[in-house]
Amino acid sequence: MKRKIYKYIVTSSISRYILTKKEKKSFSRIKLDDQYLNKINSKLFNNFFYNEDKINYIINNKNILDEQFPKLKYYIDKIFYDKYFLFGEKIYDFCGVKDIWNFDPVDQYKFKKRYYPPKKLSYTLKLIENEKKKGQYPDILIPFRMSRMNSLAGLGLMYNIENNVKYLHIANKYIINWINNNKYLYSVNWISPMTISLIGMNWIFHIPLIYNKILKKDKKKIIKTLYLFSNYLTKYIENKYDTNNHYIAELVALLCLSILFDFNYSWILNELEKTIVRNTNSDGFDFEGSTAYHRYSTELLLIVFKIARINNIKLSKKFQELLDKRLTVLKEIELSNHSIPIIGDNDLSYIFSMTYPNPPNPTALESIFKSNYKKKYADLNILFYA
Q1: Regarding predicted confidence, which is higher, 241 or 257?
Q2: What is the C-alpha R_g of the chain?
Q3: The pLDDT value given to residue 279
Q4: pLDDT 10s digits, 235-247
Q5: At CA 90, angle to CA 301 and CA 383, rounded to 5?
Q6: Measured between alpha carbons, how far is 386 from 380 in angstroms, rounded to an integer?
Q7: Residue boundaries of the structural domains of the chain
Q8: Which of 46, 285, 361, 385 has the smallest set of CB atoms within 10 Å of its CB?
Q9: CA-to-CA distance for 244 and 159, rounded, in angstroms?
């Protein structure tokens, strides 16, 4: 029996695939003058994870990161040779590729710039099947994973710690290049609302690491694109069937975007409260039956908890109790090397990415939930996100 899905989104009857007159009017109201840019700047620095005090603390205490810092530098420096870690420790070589966001380097397949209807994955795969050359087996997950920009956090942190502009330049180029190569609904990345969600969250959480050095014209591009993400997710949120980890990611991204742009987010909080109850079994384990999905969904709900605390948003006692139970499950299944056993599906999704290219371990997640960052934790994730 299918679960009852609560719908709070009203989609436009004029068009599902292009901006309506009402939406265009809404976009035209954004006056990207200095006053508005300063307002967004204040939001990014005060309403999410980053602030000057925190990054200065990390820079001044980087000696406690002796084990993690060299590893992070090794992984991030690979980007300067167009090599990316997309699925754990597996390297993908994009050398010589201009549009890295719409390319599969394994099969040397370039995904076409055309209109792709959102959420129509099977339709898109048929298009690709008809266009690919004999012997090619392009993987659509590669552009999805590249677009998530999990390395953005590491690039920003390396710039601040080493005071080296090469990290700043690649991070800025990274974002603007994605915008220029992914016209609204005209690249393969717009098929997946979860991909757009993860891009939005990574930008909001980690752009502050380089925001003060970004050119004004590029800031305007970024803000417009984030506004577009909000419009897109409101229309195409995946709430038709089971409210799985995709749905949670989209809700969390919408919450962040709503805080950034001063939209009403009460319906999002209501749905998140209901979702954690629906998706958490009595033993604290996620209903999808996958340890990786349990870790990922718990991380997303932990983001809600931390952002609610920063913004003085009240969450129910039930939400906090279930989040604590989920974190306890992760701690109990944690292995001696701080990983978790992989049972069920695993797409290696994560947000807390200071340990790029690997997700944070259960101990770190539990500590983020319960601790203040000004403790001598030798873990980048705890120091940055707590």
Answers
A1: 257
A2: 20
A3: 93
A4: 999 886 667 899 9
A5: 40
A6: 10
A7: 32-385
A8: 46
A9: 36
Is 369 within 8 Å of 89 (Cβ atoms)? no
Contacts 24+ apart (CB under 8 A), 17-24: 17/115, 17/117, 17/118, 17/185, 18/185, 19/184, 19/231, 23/231
What is the rounded CA–CA span in Å between residue 168 and residue 85? Answer: 19
Q: Are strands 103-104 and 109-110 parallel, antiparallel or unpaired?
A: antiparallel
DSSP 276-331: HHHHB-TTS-BTT--HHHHHHHHHHHHHHHHHHHHTT----HHHHHHHHHHHHHHH
Per cent of the chain over pLDDT 70 is: 91
CATH code, residues 32-385: 1.50.10.100
Q: What is the DSSP string of 219-265?
A: HHHHHHHHHHHHHHHHHH-S-SS---HHHHHHHHHHHHHHHHHT---
**Among 94-103, 153-162, 345-354, where is mean pLDDT lowest?**
345-354
Secondary structure in 3-state letters for 115-139: CCCCCCHHHHHHHHHHHCCCCCCCC
Q: In angstroms, rounded to a whole number, what is the distance separating the alpha carbons of residues 58 and 48? A: 17
Cross-strand partners of 110? 103
Q: Which residues pair with 286 in a beta bridge?
A: 280
CA distance 313 to 383: 22
Residue 189's contacts (CB-CB under 8 Å, 6 or more residues apart) are 101, 102, 143, 144, 147, 182, 195, 196, 199
Coil, strand or helix at 44: helix
- Percent of the chain as helix, strand, coil, to the nearest 5: 60, 5, 40
pLDDT at 191: 92
Phi, psi (degrees; rounded to nearest 5) at 103: -145, 140
Residue where the block lists tokens 């976009």: 27
